[in-house]
Amino acid sequence: MRRYGEGIQDYGDYILHYKGETPGLYGVSFLIKKKLAHRIEEIKGISERITVLNIVLPLNKNQKWSIIQAYSPTESNKNEDVVKTEKFYKDLRTTIAYSHKNIILMGDFNGQIGTFNNGEEYTVDKYGHGKRSKNGDRLVTLALENELRILNSFYKKKKTKQWTWIAPNDHKMVRARLTSTPTKRKRMFHKEISPSVYIFNGDQLKTILEKPIEKNKGNSVPIQEKYEKLINTLQKETKKVNPRSKSVVSDETKQLLHARKELLQKKGNIINRGKIAEISKIINKNIRKDRKLKRQDTLKKHIEKTGGTKKAIGQQEIPV
């Protein structure tokens, strides 16, 4: 919606509220069924990028809802664009703070949230797509602060439905069927898979295993039973001696994740939201750092072992 100024227009069965400050650019609006007009408490244009509709919806016990329509600036490294984006999110936080308890936040946020990280399970679910962008990072942080769920990530979609535009083109509605000749693939030849080799602390393991062996000496226990007990002890204790974890998160990051989780469990207030925002920024920075260190360690290990990086590069995508 790119209408200049702010106003309400009648369109038969619908009413249109619009807000715009730059002729021909930006702008947000609501198109509301006229039969719901008597339920509207307020329609307020905060800026040309944010407008809010406070309404009593005919749901359970006629609950009050705030529906916020937002249009985020696009991502850019220019200082003036970064300032615009920060102002947009500041205005959005203020709008949410003065809204009803029940909130629907919708619109175009010009970003990708990607897949979820540890501590974001409430906000982002397993159906996120792609890599997280800077705007996506800002959106996830905002959602965490205000206990909002990004519903797109909670429902599985076909790959063809997971995008609406391709940069650098503008937004386009697509109604077409694309067909193409599939590329002929070469036959894959699988190399013989070598068994995994586990390296244990031998002295520690030996000490642990000697105890049940000494205990059973002289007892009239069947050999098979002794063998089964030994195997069970071996399987149990080797996991303790040499635990294997795929997590790349450092202890410092884990502590921050735990601290944020505790804040999220408390009913939100402005002070808690500020703390969550600060912790989230540090967590995101630390996770990037942890992943970088893990990649470097993986490359170093395989270069020292094989002299090449091919296998190491194949192991770069490691879960957090």
From TrEMBL:
SUPFAM superfamilies named among the record's database cross-references: DNase I-like
Entry's transmembrane regions: none
Protein origin, superkingdom: Eukaryota
The protein's name in its UniProt record: Craniofacial development protein 2
